[in-house]
Write a structure and sequence with these properties.
4-stranded antiparallel beta sheet; 2 helices; Alpha-Beta Plaits; about 35% helix; SCO4226-like; DUF4242 domain-containing protein; alpha+beta
Length: about 90
């Protein structure tokens, strides 16, 4: 399944309280469960939180499902980028 990075512009998200982040994660999980029940193949891996943005890593059959999740959950999808390849320190070893 393709992997995507979703950039979300969310002012002051980096200073959000733990409870607010928990509520956001619960909302996302709820929408993902609904979509899964509709046989839509999308999965949230994790999210990096910066000061005014988040960078979410998702697996999804297509970009349209990413946008659908964003619309249904109420979280913006400012930029969606498909990951073509991954490299890490082991890549340097040949």
């Amino acid at each position: 399944m393709p992997r995507y990075v979703i950039e979300r512009a969310i002012p002051a998200i980096g200073s959000a309280e733990r409870e607010a982040l928990r509520a956001a994660a619960q909302k996302s999980n709820s929408v993902l469960a609904e979509m899964k029940a509709e046989h839509k193949n999308i999965q949230w891996e994790h999210t990096y939180v910066a000061s005014d943005k988040t960078f979410c890593i998702y697996l999804s059959d297509n970009e349209a499902l990413i946008h659908e999740h964003a619309q249904r959950s109420g979280f913006p999808a400012t930029q969606v980028t498909e990951v073509r390849k991954m490299i890490d320190p082991v890549t340097a070893e040949g």
